[in-house]
Amino acid sequence: MENNIEVKVHFLGGAGTVTGSKFLLELPGKNILVDSGLFQGLKELRELNWEPFPFPPVEIDLVLLTHGHLDHTGYLPRLVKEGLKAPITGTAPTLAIASVIVQDSAKIQEEESKEANEKGISSHKPALPLYNIQDAENAIRLFKPAEPDNWIIFTPDIKYRFVTNGHIIGSTFIELNIYGKLFVFSGDVGRIEDALLEKPKKPRWADYLFLESTYGNRMHPREDVDAVLAGAVKEVIKNRGNLIIPSFAVERLQSLMYTLWQLYLQNKIPNIPIYVDSPMGNNVLQIFQEFHTWHKLSNKEFAEMQRHFKIIMSYGDTWKTIDDKQPKIVIAGSGMVTGGRVLTYLRYMIEHPENTVLLVGFQAEGTRGRQMLEGAHEVKIMGKYLPVKARIMHIESLSAHADQPELLEWLSEIKNIPEEVFLIHGEKLASDALRVKIKDQYNWHVSLPKLMEIRSIKFLAGDRDL
C-alpha cells in the first residue's frame, strides 16, 4: 500500500544569512530540529534571538547537531528555557565543544545584563540575559553522544547518521532517512587540505540536500599563508608593535597555533612571545587532547605545540600583557570581533599605527570584523568610538569553510539527481552565485529559501538500502 508522506521544513535560521542555523522538520508524528544556532551580526538578526520560538519547543522530539559552533548550538539553552525536553545528539567532540560554548555564552549574557543594569545603559528595566548558566546546564543534561557513520534508528520509518565533514573537530553532515527518502544536511563543509583535520567525506545520495553556501561566490585566494604570517610578524617586530589576531576558539585557534609553531621550527619567524588569551579556547585545547583520534597531531606533537605559547589564565594576565611594551603576538577571541578578550586589546591598541590586526576568517555582516575589513575609519568598542590607525590585514584562505570549487567538489559523488537542493547558511549574493554554478555544472534544481519560510515536501513512502 502506498503512503503519501508530507514533511514540512521550517527555515528558522541560516536562510539568507550565515547565522542562527535552525531547520525544523515536521514529520508524521515526530518533529526533528537540525541545529539550534544563535543569530549574530546585524541587529535585526540578533533581535530574533529574543522572539518566542516559532514552534512549540516541547513538541520537538529530537535535536541533531552538525557541529559545536555558536551559530549552530548557541540557542539551545533558550530553547530548553522555553520547554525543550528532547535529547540533543551529535558526535562526542561536538557535544564537548557545545558544552563549552553554551556555558561561555550564558556567562557573557549574565555579565552583560549585570553591567547594563549597573550602568543604566539598557532601555529594559531591568536588563535580562537571553539565558543564564543554569539554562545552559539544563541543556547540557540533554546531550547524548553518537558515533559517526552508524545508522541510528529513531522510529521504524526514520533513521539518521553523522558523517565527518572536516570543518572543526567533531563536525559532520547529517543524513536523515525519512520513509525511504534521504534528507542531507551539509552542516559547514571543511577544506580539502587542512593542517589538523582529515578532508571531508562526501555524500553518495541525496533526495533533498540542504547545502551551506558561506563562500558560494568565492574562491579562497591561493595565498602563501606562511609568507603572509611571517611578514606580519617581522613587520610588528620592526615597528616595535603588536600583532593582534582575533580568532574563533574552535579550530581556527588551534590551526593558528600549529602554523605559528611550524614557522618557528622552520626558522621563518624569531622566538617572539605569543599569547593565547581565550578562556574558551583553552577549554577547546583540552578537548583536542581528549579526542586525539579526531585530528592529525600526535599527543607528543600537541604537547610540544602548546609549550611554545603563553596561555593566559586570568583577566589580570590580560592587563599585564597589554602593559608589556615588547613586540608580541596575541591571539584572542572572538573571531568576528563581536566580543571576548580581543576587545580589551583593541581598545588600547587599535589607535596605534605600529600595531597590526590580522583577520583570519569569515566576517559576517554587522560585525566589527566586517567593518574593519571594509575599511572603517573608526569602530565602537566598549561604548567609545576609536579611530582605526592600526594596519588591518586579512588571510581569507585560513577559513575553515569550503569555497565555491570545494563545495562543488563535495557534491561530486552524489549518484542520483536530488529532487531539490536548498542553499542555506550564506548571504544572498553568495547563495545565488552557488545556485548558478550548481545549475550549470550539475543541472540540479536549486532554491534559496527565505528566513522563516516553511516548505512542504510530499512524496510516496518507500524503501532504500542505504
Structure description:
With 466 residues, this protein is an alpha/beta fold. It folds into 2 domains: 276 residues, 4-Layer Sandwich (Metallo-beta-lactamase, Chain A); 174 residues, Rossmann fold (3-Layer(aba) Sandwich). The protein is built from 14 helices and 22 strands. The strands form 4 sheets. The chain has a 7-stranded mixed sheet with strand order 6-5-4-3-2-1-22. It has a 7-stranded mixed sheet with strand order 7-8-9-10-11-20-21, covered by helices on one side. The chain has a 6-stranded parallel sheet with strand order 14-13-15-12-16-19, with helices on both faces. Strand 17 and strand 18 form a beta hairpin. Helix 4 runs antiparallel to helix 5 and helix 4 packs antiparallel against helix 8. The longest helix is centred in the N-terminal third of the chain and has 28 residues. The mean pLDDT is 94.
